[in-house]
Amino acid sequence: MEKVPITSEGYVRLRNELKNLKFVERPAVVKAIAEAREHGDLSENAEYCAARDRQSFIEGRLAELEDIVSRCEVIDTKKLKGETVTFGVTVEIVDEETEELTSYTIVGPYEVDISRSFISTASPIARALIGKRVGESVEVTTPNGSKIFDIISISIA
Question: Residue ranges of the Transcription elongation factor GreA/GreB C-terminal domain (predicted)?
């Protein structure tokens, strides 16, 4: 079984979602199904069909979350040194061509959130950055061609 790196904050979010689905959402959908059954003919009961669809989604997501949580390896980012780009650090880079400054936090695949600039360790830019130090340049192959970035700073997330 392959372990998946995750921050403690990401792990807590997954555990909270799992807990909510098990103890709030699942009982609510079971109740909704029971109420819909009381309305009679199930073949033409939209409430029953919707509740069953929701139940199917919940059970699928529960199975997925239980698998993910069982494979998680929580990495304590507070113990990182921040000398090289690794999992859990925030790295600030500048595009050599456009001078555009960007900051990314390197996280596991289940924490990716591009709106917060959280990118996966498996992303092309993270793979190029990992192991590098401040002042080094990296070349990243993107869909728009190759780009060169300089590492400006590395900090603990």
Answer: 83-155
| Dihedral angle sign, alpha carbons of residues 34, 35, 41, 44 | negative
The pLDDT tens digits for 108-146 are 999 999 999 999 999 999 999 999 999 999 999 888 889
The Cα–Cα gap between 41 and 38 comes to: 9
Residues 109 and 103 sit within 8 Å (Cβ to Cβ) = no
Beginning with the edge strand found earlier in the chain, give each strand of the sheet holding 101-107 in spatial order. 118-120, 101-107, 89-95, 145-156, 137-142
Q: What is the pLDDT of residue 14?
A: 96
Sequence ranges of the domains in the chain? 4-75, 81-156
Helix (H, G, I), strand (E, B) or coil at 154: strand
Report the 10 Å Cβ neighbour count for 26.
16
| Topology classification of domain 4-75 | Helix Hairpins (1.10.287)
Write 122-129 long-range contacts (CB < 8 A, 24+): 125/149, 129/85, 129/91, 129/93, 129/104
| Both structure tokens of 139 | 């070349």
What class does CATH assign to 81-156? alpha beta
The angle that helices 46-71 and 8-20 make with each other, rounded to 10 degrees, is: 150
